[in-house]
Amino acid sequence: MSPTAPLVLGIDIGGTSLKSAIVNTETGKLTSDVHVVPTPPPATPGQILAVVGEMIDHFSWRGPVGCGFPAIIRRGVTLSAANISPEWIGFDALSALKKLTDQPVQILNDADVAGLAEMAFGSGLQLSDAEAQVVLFLTLGTGIGSALFLKRALLPNTEFGHIEMNGMDAEDLAATVVREQENLSWEAWGARLNQYLQKMEFLLSPSAIIIGGGVSRNPEMFFPYLDLDAKLLPASMGNDAGIVGAAMCIRESLG
Ligand code: BGC
Predict the structure, then answer these.
(1) Could you confirm whether domain 123-236 is CATH 3.40.50.720?
(2) Are strands 144-150 and 231-234 parallel, antiparallel or unpaired?
(3) For residue 110, pLDDT beyond 80
(4) Mutation test of ligand 1: which of 80, 136, 138 has the most ligand atoms closer than 8 Å to its C-beta?
(5) What residues contact residue 131 under an 8 Å CB cut-off, 6+ apart?
(6) Helix crossing, 110-121 with 240-248: angle to 10°?
(7) What stretch(es) of the chain map to CATH 3.30.420.40?
(8) Are 30 and 22 in contact (CB under 8 A)?
C-alpha cells in the first residue's frame, strides 16, 4: 500500500500480544484489519523487533510507524521492564526502530498513547472543560498503565500502576490479569480497584478518571463497587485506543 498523510501504521506492543493496523490519524479510525501476533517470550528486543518487521511486511507498509510500548520511555530509550525482558532497560529502541523501518518512527509509553487516543477520539470528548482540568486515564490489563492530562495535555511516563498498596505494587493487586489469575469475583476485585482509585484520588484530585483496557467493555460489572468524587467514565475505544494512540505518537515530541 502506498501511504498518503495522515496514514500511519500503529503498533501496540504488549506483554501478551502485539497488535497493529493502519490508522487515519485525523479521524482516529482504523483503515485496515487488526493484525495480532502473540508476544514471543521472554520478549527480548530482538524478538519484538522481529515481530515489528513482520508486521510491516504483513501490510507491505512504506510510511510512518508509531509504537506504544509498556515501559518508561525517554528520548526513545526504554527505561523499565515490568512485564517484558529486562534486556529493554537502557535499550535505544528508537534508533533500533529507525534502522529497522527506514521510515519516520516514534515510540512512547503504551498507556500514554492510549490516553492520547481516548482524549482525542474517545471518552475524552464527553468531558466539559471543567471536567477535563485533570484527567487520570488508567488502562487495566497485564499491568496498570497510567496517563495524566492537565487541560488535555499529557504529562508522560507517570507509572502510577507501581504505587505501593498493602505492601505490594498496586498492579499486582488490581490489574485485570490478577482478577483472572486469582479467580476473584467482580465484587472482590472491584473493592481492590476502589482502594487503588481512592488512593489515586487522594494523591491527584483528578476531575475525571477514565478506565481503559478490556474491562472497559463491561463497566456495569465493577463500576457499582467504585466510590469516587471524580467523574468516572469507561474508555470507549477498546483495544483500538492502543493502536490509534501508537499511530498518533508520530506527531508527539514527548518523552
Ligand atoms: C508498565 C507501564 C505500562 C503498564 C501497562 C506497567 O507494568 O510499567 O509502563 O504502561 O504496565 O502496560
Answers:
(1) no
(2) unpaired
(3) yes
(4) 80
(5) 207, 208, 231
(6) 90
(7) 7-109+240-254, 123-236
(8) yes
Does ligand 1 lie within 6 Å of residue 123's CB atom? Answer: no
The rounded distance, in Å, linking the Cα atoms of 39 and 48 is: 7
- CATH code for 7-109+240-254? 3.30.420.40
What band does 254 get if pLDDT is binned at 50, 70 and 90?
A: very low
Q: Is 112 in the pocket of ligand 1 (CB under 6 A)?
A: no
**Can you say whether the dihedral through the CA atoms of 138, 178, 202, 163 is positive or negative?**
negative
Establish how many alpha carbons lie within 13 A of residue 240's alpha carbon, considering only the half-sphere containing its beta carbon: 22
Encode 110-121: b = buried (16+ Cβ within 10 Å), e = exposed.
bbbbbbbbbbbb
Q: Are 234 and 123 within 8 A, CB to CB?
A: yes
Does position 2 have pLDDT exceeding 50, yes or no?
no
CB neighbour list of residue 79: distance below 8 Å, 6 or more residues apart = 71, 72, 73, 89, 90
Phi/psi of residue 151, nearest 5 degrees: 45, 45
In the block, which residue shows the cell 482478577?
A: 179
CA-nearest residue, atom 12 of ligand 1 = 70
Please state the rounded mean pLDDT for residues 63-71.
Answer: 97
